[in-house]
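Figure 2 data, in text form.
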Amino acid sequence: IRLVESGGGSAQAGGSLNLSCAASGFHYTTYFMRWFRQTPGKEREFVASIAWPLGDTEYSDAVAGRFTISRDNPGSTMYLQMNNLKPEDTGLYYCNLLDSWGQGTQVTVSS
């Protein structure tokens, strides 16, 4: 399985960013794709997940109501729309599928 994140960058507090994760090399019919994030000195934390094929979503309390996870119809690309960003959203965002991880994309939010 290969996962490639993109879309990270810098934003002001209150701004928005949209992350993408392109997945390839798998043939499962039922699975979850997840976003995690990590900041220096802290453990990687769960952000959001989406189920295939039903599309059920789940969010951490820290991002619920501000972030939206989605995926395209084939289910091979996952997105994370991040609105009303806060400085504490700063971190390296990772895409996860089963036991595979992407390389991460950096998000930096300034106050």
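Caption note: The chain is about 0% helix and 55% strand.
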